[in-house]
Structures are given as structure tokens and as C-alpha cells.
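Budget justification, computational time. The allocation requested in the original proposal was used primarily to generate C-alpha cells for proteins on the priority list. As evidence of use, we reproduce two of the resulting records. The first is shown immediately below.
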Amino acid sequence: KKSTTTTTTKGGGFGTSSSTTTVVKKHTPQKYDLSSPQGRMSYIASKVQTSNFSSMPYTNSNSICVIDNFLGKSFLSHLRNEAESILPTMIPSQSTKWDDTTQSVITYQKHNVLSTQIQGGPEGYAATPKLVEYVVTMTQYLSKAINKVVPEARLSSTEQTNKLAVCLGDGSKYDKHIDNMGGNDRRKMTALLYLQSPSMHTSSSSETQQQGSDNDAQQQQQLDDDPNELGGHFRAYDVPTVGSMERIAPKGDRLLLFWSDSLVHDVAPSFAPNGDIDRRWAFTIWFLTDDVGNIRVTDSELAQRHFGTG
């Protein structure tokens, strides 16, 4: 920052003279006491407040916002350590999908995927204090930041639901789905933070990739099914255009935002060729809208094209 000081001097017989001095002040980054809860929460809030969410227009139901190096490698490692500490308490992850045989939505257990919900309260905070602080701070500050850019979202700053999940490898994956397909579900926006080391997925983590042709699709399918690769890419469908697909690598400290009630996506097979260090960790917060009437109705043509129903 620059400050300008003007000095005026009156001298005998020589009139009035003035001089202007410009002083350059160095910007000192604010320091946070990361050993205290308040310091950690202020740090997370500052990361939200200095991020750009302009790539989340409400008019584009398939918009995706990707923010790399969101919390910093050191802070992220603390979240990962807490996540690993509760791995023995995590349970097989269940989800729902459309079943062509029964022509209905069924519940199924994901292969080699474990999950849990991070809970507040004395017991939950004692187990994972930093993960709880992350949820509380993101719920308050990210909701306000998005509402400022996209007021139509009407996100609650007090309500959320969340899931901590880990893919253990051996082809663990998520089937194609939309997070919220209606009913009384108020989940409006998904905020997904990858907890693995930022040094993973270095060959393809900095850019997203689109596929359009059949040859591209076949090549990427072979890559996604290769057990010598880490895999686990987030795959968004009809992005950027109908019929195309965007692959986003699960690079550690990457924050991924999208609309819960509209984006068709899945997770490609995930592998862990080097054991535990290669496991794919994802921490998801779903932000609720204040009005269930604000949830988009799934387009019948889209449902037919992706799920065989509509």
C-alpha cells in the first residue's frame, strides 16, 4: 500500500514551497494462532473470503468451481490426520441408484468405500476438533460468500449435512448420480475437499479435461480402469456441453463446488498401488437452501439419457 504526505514550508522572502513524499508500506500477511480453535476458524474464514466464486452462476446448472491450494499443505495434513484417526470407526458407504431390472431406485453398498458423518457436540469435537471447526466455519462463511455472488441459491448459514469418505482402492468408485433429485431434500450446493497429499495426481491435477469423441471416451475409460494409476477422478457429465464429460483429478487441497440438485457426476475407479498413502479421501459438505421450493426438478430428458428413467 502507498501513503502520500505533503509538507508545506513558508520561508522568509522565498514564498511558499511544498514537497510530496510517497511512502510504500509493506503488506504484512495476517498471522493466525493455529494452536487455538478461534485461530484455526479465523484462518479458514480468511481462505473463504479471499477465494473467487464467480464461476458458479445460477443460470448454469452444471457450473463447477475449482479452487486449488485452498487451505495450504500444512493445515490440510492436520485434517487428513484426524480423518485417518477415525478410520476404524467408519462403515461401508451406502448410496442409491436406478436399477434397470426392477425399474426403481435401490440402495446399494459401494465397493471398498467407507464413510462417516462428522458430528458436533462434546464427543464429536473431542474426536475430530479440526474437522468440526472446518464444517462450522465453512457453513457460516461459504454460504454467505455464495449468497453474495449467487443470491438465488439462498443457502442457509446454520444448516448443513456432511460426509467423510475414503476409497480404499481395488477399483472403488461411485456410480453416476445427482446428489439431490428432489423430494424434501434441501441440499443445494456441494462443497468437496480432497484430503490426500497435494503432490498426488501431479500429471493431471492442474487442469480439467473434456471428452467428446468416442475415441477420447475409450482412451479415458482405459486410463480410468488402469490399476497402476491412482484414478478416482471426479467425472461431470454434460460439461461443458451436452454429451461431453469433464474429468477433475482429486488433488489434495482442491476444493470443488457444484449445484447438488443438477450436476450428473460419478467417481472413476480408484486404486491404491502403494497402499494406505494412495487412498482417496474426500470430505463433503452439503449446503442446504432455506426453501425446498428452490430445489431444481430433474429434467426428464436428462434422467432418461443418464439413468434410463424419467
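The second record produced under the same allocation is shown here.
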Amino acid sequence: GRAKSRRGWSMIHRGLIGLGFAFLPRTSYQQTRQLTTMAATKGLIFRQLFEKTSSTYTYLLADEKTREGILIDPVVETAERDAALCKDLGVKLTYAVNTHCHADHVTGTGKLKDLIPGCKSAISTASGAKADEKFDHGKVFTIGSHKLAVRATPGHTDGCVTFVLNDGEACFTGDAVLIRGCGRTDFQAGNSEMLYDKVHEEIFSLPESCVLYPAHDYKGHTSSTVGEEKTLNPRLTKTKAEFVEIMANLGLPYPAQIDRALPLNMVCGIQD
């Protein structure tokens, strides 16, 4: 029976190949899965959340045992949702942090501090924005048994950082690297050459299997990997000179929410 079944499948397999179907070898399939999905990090609570107006992703990371948590890039309009989720999961939110001073939405850090006693806001020193704590390249946030390390990745703005989980299991790149793209460099002290250098030095130096989570996506994607972006990103795979030329000619419109968002984000999203 088993031999017949194998022969039958072999005939079907050859027939499908003849029709143009392609099959990955088992080992290749396993490698592909490793490169396109985030491996379940033992003992980590992880949620990717979305705010539709600005297409912003907010990320919740917490330790399963201690329930200590950190929220990356919250949005003011969805701060109550995030606080409710923390309550549902029993997460003690210790920090609400930003990858940079955003121009396309108002940060939810200030509101979350009101909603969750003990929660602190944090942002890079280079951003020039107010927060309970300022951090620089090399800072490590501890979430129970997990580590979230800060890598300075300026260029989109002068205060951008990337958060790296557990030495390269995942990275949260803000606007420095988007899925098949990157953040614009024509305002907030943006610098195309600096962005190119910092992405290659601080993000593309991570393991290729490192899952990459951006601050935004406008096409329905949720994540990528360092390996994918190193080979498939249509901007960041160019030479530096070509990249600078591309960025200088994007012709993007003025950010819709910048006049409201930027002044508020300089003061943690709360106007005194």
C-alpha cells in the first residue's frame, strides 16, 4: 500500500512539474520558513498592532513570567486600545518608547502615562524631544529575560533608532527601513547619505534571518527580514550615489499631519 502510494504521488509530482509547477526541496522549504516568519521567542508575549489613518505599527513585547512590557511607537488615537490589551494580558507596561520623533501621527506615550500608572516615556537624546528618559546608542532595555538594544540609525530624522531584540531575533526599524523602501529624508534634519550608511552598518549587519518590523506599511505587508531587504529593497541595494539620487527625486507630498504632530511629539504628545 505504501509503495503504491509513493509511486502514485511520484507520477502526480512529475505531471505537475510538466505543467510548470515548482516544488521546493524539504530543506529549502524549511530555510524559507525561517527567513519569512518570526520564530516564536520562548517566554515572549508579542503583539503587532495597527493604526489605520497613518498606517502605523505599534509593537507590544512582554516577558511571560515577569509580565514586564514595553510598547514601541504607540499612537494617541489607539492608546486606550493598547492600555486595554496590557490589562487583558496582565502586562505591566514599564516603558512606551518611540523609534523617532514622528511627523505623521501624534505619539501615544503621554496618554499611556495617564492610563497606566508607572509607565515611563522614552526617546533618543538626539531627537531633541521631551520624555521621562532619554537614551543613546548602546542602551539596553530589559524586559524580564529579554533584551532590547538600541542602535542609532539616523538619516530619516537625526534622532532615529532601531531596537534589536535578543541580539538579532528581530529588529524594529522605525522609518529607517520599510518593507522594500525607507523613510524620506527631506525634512527633520534628514540626510540620505547618513541613512544609507547607518542602515548598512547597524541593520544590514544583523543576521539575515532577523525579522524586520517597520513603523509603517502602506501595502498590507507586516514584516520582512534583514536578508530580504539586503537583496530586494529597491533603494537600499543601490550604490550610495544612486540612493542619494533616488531620494532627491521622490517628489513626495508634504506630510498631512506634520503641522499638528511634530509640535506635540516634541513634548511627548501632550500639550501642557
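A brief technical remark on that second record: The longest strand covers residues 44-51.
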